[in-house]
Structures are given as C-alpha cells and as structure tokens.
Amino acid sequence: MAAIRLVCLAIVLVLGVGHALDFSKAKDVPVLVKTLKNLNRGPPQQVVTKRANVQEKWITQKLDNFDDSNTETYQMRYLINDEFQTDGSPIFIYLGGEWTIEQSMVSAGHWYDMAQEHKGVLVYTEHRYYGESIPTTTMSTENLQYLHVKQALADVAHFITTLKSENAQLANSKVVLAGGSYSATMVVWFKRLYPDLVVGGWASSAPLLAKVDFTEYKEVVGRAFLELGGQQCYNRIQNGIAELESLFANKRGAEARAMLRLCNSFDDQNDLDLWSLFGSISNVFSGIAQYQSGNDINDYCDYLLSFRDDATAIANLVYWAWGVPSCIDATYASTVEYYLWGVENFDAGRPWYYQTCNEYGWYQSSGSRNQPFGTKFPATLYTTLCGDVFNSRYGNEYISNNVAQTNVDFGGMEPGVENVYMTHGALDPWNPMGHGVAEGATLIANASHCSDFGSIRSTDSAEMRASKEKLAELMREWLA
C-alpha cells in the first residue's frame, strides 16, 4: 500500500491537481517551468457527492477598465450554481486566480455548505488571461499590458454590479468573496478598493507583501520536512543537495549529470543552467510541502531514507517527481524558449510569470542559510528570466520598482480592510508574506497552502474545525 501511495503522490507532483489542461503533451516542458506550474496551480478540487446544476456563462468586460478611449472588450467566463437561489439570496463569489476554473468549488466544500445555509447563489469567476478568459490574440509582452491585478479587480466589480442589475432577485443581495493564494490576496485588495460592493470575505493563504527575494519560503519548506519528517530526513535533503553542488564545483560534473540523468545539452559551467537545475530540485520539495496533508511528507521521507547515500536519494526522488523522462531538460535556454513559445500557444505559465515580473516578485530563492536546499538558485535567476522572456527593461531596478509600487498601492502588510477573515496553514511556505496571529489571522497547526476549503468533517484537526466554525459564525454576522 505504501508503494501505491508513493506512486499516486508522484503523479500529483508531476501533473498537479486543479489543471484542466496538460500542456506537457503539446510541448516538452522544462523542469523549471514544470515545477513552477505545480506551485501555482488552483486550490484543491473538492469531493462532489451530489450533482449540482452548474452553468457556464460569459460576461463582456472591457479590455482596459481605466481607459475610456479604448472600446475593446473580451468575454470573461464564470460558473454559477443557483440551486439555492431565492429572492434576496446572498451572492457567494469564489475568485479565480492563475488557473482554469472548475465546477467543484461551487458544488462542494465549506464555501458551498455556507451558501446552502444562507440560500446563497454560488459563483466562480475566471481571471483574465487564464483558463478560457483570454482577452488578446497572443500573449505577447505588448498584449500582456492588460494583465494586472487592478484590471482583474475592476472586472470583478463590473461583474457584481452587472449580475445584480440583470437579476431582479439579486438586486439588493449582499455579496461575500472567497479566494485561495493569489485570489485570496485579491479578496483582501478588492475590499480595500471596493469596500461598498462586498460585506465580507474569506482569504485563505493570502500573501500581502510583494517582495522580490522571497527567502522565507524555502525556510518554511525546510521546517515542514523537519517537523513532519524528522531530523534524519532533513539532514538527508541538506546533505544530498550539498553533495550534488560539491560534485559540480569540484569538476565531477559528469558524475553528477549521470546521477541526475541530465540531457547532454546541460552545461554545468553555465551558472544559469546550474541555478535552473537546483531551483527545480528545491521546487520538488516545495511542491510536497506546499500541498502536504496526512502522511505525505512522512511517505516521501521514508522513500528518501531507503537509499544508502544522500545524493542518490535526492537524484531518484526528483527524477521520479519530474515524470521519469528519457533525460532531464534543466537548461535555462529551454525555459526561456518555452515561455517564448507561450506567446502564440496559450499556456498559464507565461501570464503568471509576467505578473511576478510586473507586480509581485515572490522569487523563492536560496538566499537564506536556514533552509536545506543549498545555495544555487538566487533571485537573480528569476529576474534574469524576466528580461529574457518579456523585455530587456525588466532588469533588477525595474522589477524592484514594480514590486515597491504594488506595496504602495495595496498597503503591504497593512491593507486597512475590515470584515476579511484570513487563514494560513502554519506550515504553508507562503504564510510569511501574509498576516499572522498578531494581525488577527488564524494559523492552523500542521496545515499548509489552501488546505481549509473542505467541508467540516470528523477528520479535521481541532484547529482546522475551530477555524471553519469561526468563519461560519462570521458569515452569519455579515449576512444578518
């Protein structure tokens, strides 16, 4: 049984959960892109136990919400479940982020349960440039100028006013929002910009502070392996990666390349190739930690500790996690090529990467010594990639200025909002960029990223159940 579970976990690592499309069939995906996609997938799909009548609908949105002279429009997709609708039903909107929306988020889970209690209408909006809500004919850098969180928030504002104006039963309805990860950030920022349109919101795992060099992320990933997998597992990761780094540094690159099954195109004398490789290795562990539940980390640690030496253990785990290809394409050039391929071939990886360069940073680097993943993936890897993929103006200064402007626009750690319930997993690598207990957020012990969307159930920890019940009580107050 343990072996079967590990195989299933490996499939999750390779393909992720919550994606409607597997782009790897269309074009070979370099491992850096593959691992970054895995870290930016949608919230866990909910287990649907009964059929809900979810309808797919479309709304006309302006291409540029802030330029009256631009009359271009696009069609934004949304899903709606009106099975509980009655006169005056509250509107429960789950905001889509950098992923394709799907029916389970409005068919099951805690959000659905609360909507049922209040006879609410459930809606799931799709973010511009993701899923099927594509406003432009290509994803060129010029066309991506209309991809910005301010545009996406304005889309949501227009959606709310339109939905209420076109449905007599909902004309005076109260609106509540929910989101996970980036879309949780959107919940907070929507309440800041459009406080009168919603009475409250739930933000699960919301990063609030934009930051170029996000060193804290890998620290929390390491802590998750230490606390849930034990010191021996942590040491194996740290020592194995250090040994691989040492092989490359001491002219034993051929040995390391063979161990890692790297394609012949890999150049271990090229810093960008080495950074891409070690960034991808660390991201395998990040994916495990970010979405861990139950005994996930223990199972992976058991696998790592089944090998005789540290480096072999790391090499085998990442090869498995990357899908067991004939050879591993970890070159920096292939990553650039893939993102450029995404100009004409729509792929969710390119628009989100653009948003990191243009708004947030959040580059999960090896800049801290308090993590076990080595020293070979500085934030410079990611900022260099911005310039090579989008435009030469995306240098360090330009990216840093963009990130600073985001914090000015939205208040960073002080967004100044009311009636937004923020939750984080205590072992979520994103939580250092969000509110903690001191700021009124709830940290759920041993939980990770976007882990609290499921219905209240007997298997919930005491902390998880308490958080869900607190949210349900807040919802009753906001909708009273």
UniProtKB/TrEMBL annotation:
The keyword Zinc does not apply. GO terms for biological process: proteolysis. Keywords: Glycoprotein, Hydrolase, Protease, Signal. Residues 1-20 form the signal peptide. GO terms for molecular function: dipeptidyl-peptidase activity; serine-type exopeptidase activity. It comes from the Eukaryota. InterPro entries: AB_hydrolase_fold, Peptidase_S28, Ser_carbopepase_S28_SKS. PANTHER family: PROTEASE S28 PRO-X CARBOXYPEPTIDASE-RELATED (PTHR11010), RE36938P-RELATED (PTHR11010:SF5). This is Serine protease K12H4.7.
